[in-house]
Amino acid sequence: MRVCYSSVYNKISGGNDGTNVSLVENEHWRVRRLASEGCRLRLPWAMALPNLKKGPTLIIPILESLKNDPARFMHLSVANNLNDIAKDNPEIAIELV
């Protein structure tokens, strides 16, 4: 299951689902990693997300929130996500770095 769609996206980004808690803000790095990995454009073991390949603006706030995370695995996850973005939108990836 890909987590960047509709109501689950709201949970990732802290949207209007009434909980005011997002996966990005969770205290456990593995949950925060789900926020980053779940919206990757090109996972080797999952379907690509063609709409986000064209315009990854929906996931930029997620990556902005996670790019300075203290957990090493988060740095790798965000870097992988940026690599995916750079294949179709290099200018957006450069802005996020």
Briefly, what is this?
The protein is mainly α and 97 residues long.
Radius of gyration: 12 Å
Average residue pLDDT: 80
Counted by DSSP, the helix tally is: 6
The overall strand count is 0
Q: How much of the polypeptide forms β-strand, as a percent range?
A: under 5%
Question: Regarding quaternary structure, how should these chains be classified?
Answer: single chain
Shape: globular
Characterization of this structure:
It contains six helices and no strands. By secondary structure, it is mainly alpha-helical. The model is unreliable at 1-8 (pLDDT under 50).
Record keyword descriptors for this entry.
0% strand; disordered N terminus; 97 residues; mainly alpha
